[in-house]
Amino acid sequence: MSKTMTLTLQIWRQRSANTPGSMQTYKLEGVNEHMSFLEMLDVLNAKLTKDGQDPVAFDHDCREGICGSCSMVIDGRPHGPRKGTTACQLHMRTYKDGDTITIEPWRAKAFPVIKDLVVDRSSFDRIVAAGGFVSVNTGVTVDANATPIGKKNADEAMDYAACIGCGACVAACPNAAAMLFTGAKVGHLVKLPQGQVERRGRVLRMVEQMDHEGFGACTNHRECSEACPKEISFDAIELLNREYMRAQVTND
Amino acid sequence: MTDAKRPGRLSTLARSTIGAKIVMATTGVILVGFLVVHMLGNLQIYLGPDTMNHYAQTLKGTPALLWGVRAVLLVGLVLHVFAAIRLKGLNTAARPQEYAVPRRYRVTSSAARFMLLSGAVVLAFIVYHLLHFTVGVTNPADFNLHEVLDVATQTWVRNDNEQLLAKLPPEMVRHDVYSMFVRGFTNPLIAGTYVVAQLLLAMHLSHAVASMLHTLGLSKGTAARERNINIGRAIAAVVVLGNLSFPIAVQAGLVHL
Amino acid sequence: MDLNAKIPDGPIEGKWDRHRFEMKLVNPANKRKYNIIVVGTGLAGASAAASLAELGYNVDCFCFQDSPRRAHSIAAQGGINAAKNYQNDGDSIYRLFYDTVKGGDFRAREANVYRLAQISVNIIDQCVAQGVPFAREYGGLLSNRSFGGAQVSRTFYARGQTGQQLLLGAYQALERQIGAGKVKMYARHEMLDLVVIDGVARGIITRDLVTGETRGWVGDAVVLATGGYGNVFYLSTNAKGSNVTATYRAYKRGAGFGNPCFTQIHPTCIPVSGDYQSKLTLMSESLRNDGRVWVPKQKGDTRRPEQIPEDERDYYLERRYPSFGNLVPRDVASRAAKAVCDEGRGVGPSKMAVYLDFADAVRRLGQNVVADRYGNLFEMYERITGEDPYKTPMRIFPAVHYTMGGLWVDYNLMSTVPGLHVLGEANFSDHGANRLGASALMQGLADGYFIIPYTIGNYLAQAKLPKITVEHPEVQRCLAGVRAQTTRLLGIKGRTTVDEFHRELGLVMWDYCGMGRTAEGLKIALQKIPEIRARFWSDVAVPGANEELNPWLEKAGRVADFLEFGELMCLDALERNESCGGHFREEYQTPDGEALRDDANYSYAAVWEYTGEGSAPRLNKEPLEFKNVKLATRSYA
Ligand SMILES: Cc1cc2nc3c(=O)[nH]c(=O)nc-3n(C[C@H](O)[C@H](O)[C@H](O)COP(=O)(O)OP(=O)(O)OC[C@H]3O[C@@H](n4cnc5c(N)ncnc54)[C@H](O)[C@@H]3O)c2cc1C
Ligand code: HEM
Ligand code: SF4
Ligand code: FES
């Protein structure tokens, strides 16, 4: 038989972007240890709905750790206590009966709160739009195997490309910096021959956009890579710095 | 670039957050480099007054080098402080609303989180230190100590007769740094101030050196990063332990007049 | 309903080339005068929006997630097929074509499938050029694996995140066009109606999910790439937001719905653990390459798996299908699992699961090799279930995964409503009654990158499109309709949550229209669904207001559509008196339990036409002809 528990939840409630929010306390009984964290919130929301109260809004979609929608700071840690795990993949067996759990949205100027735990992360999209791509139109006719790519580079590119754009790195950073995210995209493309042509302009434009969005600056706390559910290495930031310096002294 | 504007060079550097980081790091290299040399130089205190005062005399004897270094340091420090304040401003603005519940950090240190604080104390200390030992306005009695070359024995002897000093050619007079040093640190209040400042410097450097290496992109891979973090702490320890030894040695009577 | 598929003449190998030559072109300078509405940013939508914008069209693009990068395609794990024959193992365009038609149990349109196989090779070239980090060999060339019953290695993959990487490639191409101002992106917008003016699709109605603003959009053509409707079952491997709303509302505006009952059940998912379960997680099919599926021979055996001796285990797939063994196609594997559970031999607390055992693989290859191949999957399993698959066999059970049915489209991907084009999983597709593994990604990208950019030009070059604005009375009428539904949903203020209704519908669908269907069961479902729907409209609790972010209102609208659509699925399943692919009617099976097709009577695509509120939908048929592949009984024995 699976265990059930009673939890005290303290959740940030905020009706809209322009209204002030606050932490509210809820008691939730009968939480099954095999539930995912979001399923636990579903249960809370069903209860709130039936009680005529406003349920808690949170972003989610895939519920399997890949879409990057879910975004909440659980007990002071983005995505909660488990390393390399998104909130949707966190399961209640991590907790025990009687625990108090606090839940807050990501907090950053560039991620304004929309409602409760939901924030606006379109700033990430704009960083990508500034240069996080290879400028090829549809219809290329170069055979995919025309340019061999060493396995090591291909693997490293994949390591960086694994970022799900969730924003936990920003949420975790004491400075709300987005350099892990930006560095991951720059790293993905710079490891591949296809990314070379636009190498210089890409990093300059992406960093410019990143700054423009109001993200902070990295001071090497390394909290981002520790909080990252995809365990993107802090190397991404060092690479971003190197690429940025390189871009300052080279031409295309 | 096919369909986007071509970004400029220095203008982007000056405006960008990474640019500010690079300024922090490069000025950091200069400042840390100076701290190491400065500490090593001062170790000569243990070799006695003659070595120490000779060293000081040599430095003063090459004004081009001395002022060159001072200029670089000053510019470096000003830029460093400037960039630090700018970064702090950006970073505070980047999170206008703090978390309601205190965060649980996983790897960062208090040293890293309170860099501006430790930096500010170090800055205050630097100003005080310069006034104390370089300009000599805080304790003029300890500062105005000199030695005169005894031509017969070719040794330097202490002489506080100001009229005589003024008449002698410069190569026959030198600053008695050794005595200034010892008399300065004999005062427990001053010694204590130096110790406290050095502890904050230790805090600053324990994050700063590794941070600088990361910023310059010199820590490729987790292993290298761990190594650089340790190197950073080691440099911090060496510099600060060296510096701490001076007031302590004087207070303990190991170095005396 | 006109079901002319507009298949070009000539031999199958030359049809697409010839068609491309014969299609009308839009003058490059004129392209910027056209405005195209693209709904959806999955592989199909993002690739289409980006490619159309590259050509010069103005694109308005919509998705309901907060970013186009989060479309459900992101979750695809296994890989994407292409007839590159890089492995020199005998693959060819013809073989991929053949396998797809056969895999789909001869219920797909030959010409479309052939074109898909042809285009598959361009997709890989395109993706590599974009920087998609496919897996590579030490020599630097692309790596392939064999997947889901294919006997050649034609599947390209990027670790277990192929869908993510392909989608990021398309998303980046899309963002590039957004940056260039050619695409206007509207995230957190949900399409709630299609605007048809003078019989032509001219616009959509959306609700801004942040502000609640409903507004109309007009354009010269509408492209729907809104994905599949697997969530009609409540529990599925689809993302929580996946829905039928866009396609269903288009159906209500006149677009024929093709083969709604064709759904795919994936054999290797993590079983349900309790009522609170909100979705099911797929474990990659690749696990079947080394894992062995079994259940105890004895009914109601409650021993732990380790305690059951070898000779008391039934490796039923290996027993029933000696040549394919654990690698039989999805529908076959799923049904076999259901069969043993129905016999009472299921395992785990729910008894609705079978073992997938790696003990042999660990013995044969060593733990390191197994960890290397499946480490991340094992970790994922451990994270969800709290059990360690190195020590104890995984428990798996089939789950709804993909829907082959969708809006009917002709060879040009245009629905029965002129101007309305449908791509990806949202159309009734090229997969017939069952889709092969790694072929959905291929189809989505083929549609978006390489088909729609041509065929939409052909449409626009010939269409007579009077200028209209959002002030047009028809737009306003649709807008009023959408607003009225929102008001109605919010006004009910009942006591039952949206999820409760959705779960109830899902159970009915799973029990009667799931892996095994009977006429009798489907009739029961056809009675139950309207009954649930009636209760929904009188007792649903939708908290909050319209003018704010209101996830419950969104969900309520989607469930309202599922409650109507479920009925259409059951109707289709009931009408098709045969078993084929994912559609298994228990009355129609061979003595040894295999699907029994009826080619004489059912070799057609069923296309349903909406005839109005309260009136039965009309069935239209597009006959399927097989000139290149001989109709045969699928056999995996
Ligand atoms: C777990 C899993 C694993 C899979 N693995 C594989 C695999 O390995 N290989 C393979 O080939 N296939 C796989 N598939 C199938 C494949 O992923 C999908 O069929 C395919 O990605 C569908 O792509 P799409 O572009 O048609 O739609 P989707 O990716 O579903 O995109 C739908 C888009 O439409 C938008 N949308 C939907 N409704 C509305 C609305 N009403 N208003 C506005 N926007 C709307 C959404 O926001 C989204 O952007 C897998 C599927 C699942 C569930
Ligand atoms: C002897 C004097 C000093 C030395 C050797 C020194 C050294 C350094 C170094 C090497 C760094 C790391 C730069 C990087 O992250 O790349 C740093 C960071 C920093 N310094 Fe100093 N510093 C000194 C004085 C000061 C002063 C006077 C201030 C401010 C008032 C200051 C404020 C800061 C701040 C806020 C940082 C944090 C930036 C970061 O963490 O990246 N420092 N310092
Ligand atoms: S780098 Fe990691 S934490 Fe940051 S957005 Fe990407 S996946 Fe999330
Ligand atoms: S819901 Fe998709 S990553 Fe959590």
TrEMBL record, chain B:
Superkingdom in the source lineage: Bacteria
Keyword terms: Membrane, Transmembrane, Transmembrane helix
Alphabetized InterPro entries for the sequence: Cytochrome_b-558 (IPR011138), SQR/QFR_C/D (IPR034804)
Transmembrane segments: 21-45, 65-85, 111-131, 189-213, 234-254
NCBIfam families: sdhC_b558_fam (TIGR02046)
Name listed for the protein in its UniProt record: Succinate dehydrogenase cytochrome b subunit
Source species of the chain: Nannocystis punicea
Taxon lineage: Bacteria, Pseudomonadati, Myxococcota, Polyangia, Nannocystales
From TrEMBL, chain C:
Cofactor(s) listed: FAD
Keyword vocabulary terms for this entry: Flavoprotein, Oxidoreductase
Domain of life of the source: Bacteria
Start and end residues of each FAD-dependent oxidoreductase 2 FAD-binding domain: 36-441
Keyword Protein biosynthesis in record: no
Protein's name according to its UniProt entry: Fumarate reductase/succinate dehydrogenase flavoprotein subunit
Keyword Signal: no
Species this protein is from: Nannocystis punicea
Residue ranges of domain Fumarate reductase/succinate dehydrogenase flavoprotein-like C-terminal in the record: 502-636
